[in-house]
Amino acid sequence: MTFLQNNIALVVAALMSGGMLLWPLLRRSGNEIDTLVAVQLINYKDALVLDVREGSEYNAGHVPNSKHIPADKLEERLHELEKFKSKPVILIHRSGVNATGKAGSILRKKEFAHVHNLQGGIDAWRQANLPIVKK
């Protein structure tokens, strides 16, 4: 106990430092994944990459083999995704615009078991120098 009393400033600094390191992890939602995890899910779990951006954004560059369904068309095109219900689904959006929140909610309500948002969207994919296909 005397150690704590004698070194209170050190203890407080250590706690604050640890809290600052953990803050980004606590702040993001549990279904967000980074590009490394996304690539692992694609390569080892045969994940579906679902791009929910607008058509012009998708055509400007997208993840290879991704399926494109704009977020506002998702409900009417859900039948196209039925065979992926038990597989991981990675939602791709434009950085800063999280349409995946609505898209993820729709998929979860329709019993898709493993829905993930790519943290940082397509911009994070590009920044990681991962392959991009342009139409």
From TrEMBL:
<dbReference type="InterPro" id="IPR036873">
    <property type="entry name" value="Rhodanese-like_dom_sf"/>
</dbReference>
<keyword id="KW-1133">Transmembrane helix</keyword>
<protein>
    <recommendedName>
        <fullName>Rhodanese domain-containing protein</fullName>
    </recommendedName>
</protein>
<feature type="transmembrane region" description="Helical">
    <location>
        <begin position="6"/>
        <end position="26"/>
    </location>
</feature>
<keyword id="KW-0812">Transmembrane</keyword>
<dbReference type="InterPro" id="IPR050229">
    <property type="entry name" value="GlpE_sulfurtransferase"/>
</dbReference>
<dbReference type="InterPro" id="IPR001763">
    <property type="entry name" value="Rhodanese-like_dom"/>
</dbReference>
<keyword id="KW-0472">Membrane</keyword>
<feature type="domain" description="Rhodanese">
    <location>
        <begin position="43"/>
        <end position="134"/>
    </location>
</feature>
<dbReference type="Pfam" id="PF00581">
    <property type="entry name" value="Rhodanese"/>
</dbReference>
